[in-house]
Amino acid sequence: MHPRRPDGFDGLGYRGVSRDELGPGSRPFSSGSELGSWVTTPPDIPGSRNLHWGEKTPPYGAGTPLGCASSNEEATLGAGGPGAEQLNRFAGFGIGLASLFTENVLAHPCIVLRRQCQVNYHARNYHLTPFTIVNIMYCINKTQGPRALWKGMGSTFIVQGITLGTEGIISEFTPLPRELSHKWNLKQIGGHLLLKGLTHVIAMPFYSASLIETVQSEIIRDNPGILDCVKEGIGRVVGLGVPHSKRLLPLMVLTFPTALHGVLHYVISSIVQKLVLFVLKRDNSHNLPTESSTSVQNMLDAYFPELIASFAASLCADVMLYPLETVLHRLHIQGTRTIIDNTDLGYEVLPINTQYEGMKDCINTIKREEGMQGFYKGFGAVIVQYTLHMAVLQLTKIIYSTLLQNVS
């Protein structure tokens, strides 16, 4: 439940640097001083993902004060007059919004199928390629309707909100840094990663409830309320609510794999994002804006590098941690009396009756009974998800380039 993504459920922010040193996506960090410290917001428990180091970039305009333009944006917009400036601003906002919409809405059917395949230990078809996963999506849509592919989407947003809120509260009342300063040290990094781990652990019961909503078959479930995720998460903590079987794993057993997955996803995506952003901006620096350069190209150079870096970061983290995510989801779903769709046929339902004792036993059982490919069940959905995301980014880029050229 991305790439959110879940997952698809983080990039390095700097404090204390001037506004002119930062590109688009900069926003003032509340500090009480005039402009305060400026923090980059580059473009994840899965899927999450967010406002700080390695977190996904919000749509343009969400992190920038209304009417304020970053230095790159000012260079981009300086030569076009008020009309061109407003159009370029709208273009930046639209590009970011298209990326956000793709990650959290259009990609959700891929996340649903991906999670169902991961927890389906019965499955004979592992759906390692996008061709088989698209066929199953079509069959489920035909037999249950489109609602079956978008189930649990509201709960994923709730989990993201809980994660962000928890992180903010912990950082406010503890010395754990929410961002890393420009002159970071090992102690700051340790505290920062500890904050991320604690955030995922606190959000863990709500993530379990959201996971159940995304994999539970639409055939047998009642209409869930929008806050059922919160209610069931609290019930999981206090031991009340929906009855579970004796195979339900205690939350303490789930703590380590949940925190491990969340922190690793954060670290990998942060490193990849920084590397890609460095390469893209270095390439763009060789093409300094001149009088003959078009405002269209300047706009694309200003807005697209961070979106591409975020895309690459999420993709690499999801691919590298897919086996761990499979183990994590099976542990979370065990003992919850969840019934999923039959991912071999696209119709009928199957109960989940695993008996793993913990993370190590789950890994050994999958390796013994399903082979190494068992860790990658449903991987075709990841390919479909990120192919769709890249297609939307490219299409948006073409549309805005055409519009701006026509206006120019």
From TrEMBL:
Its main location: mitochondrion. PROSITE patterns: SOLCAR (PS50920). One of its GO terms (cellular component) is mitochondrial outer membrane. Residues 28-40 have a biased composition (Polar residues). Residues 1-56 are annotated as: Disordered. It comes from the Eukaryota. Keywords: Membrane, Mitochondrion, Mitochondrion outer membrane, Repeat, Transmembrane, Transmembrane helix, Transport. GO terms for biological process: axon development; mitochondrial membrane fission. SUPFAM superfamilies: Mitochondrial carrier. Solcar repeats lie at residues 301-403. It is found in: Mitochondrion outer membrane. Coiled coil: none annotated. It is a multi-pass membrane protein. Pfam families: Mito_carr. Belongs to the mitochondrial carrier (TC 2.A.29) family. This is S2546 protein.
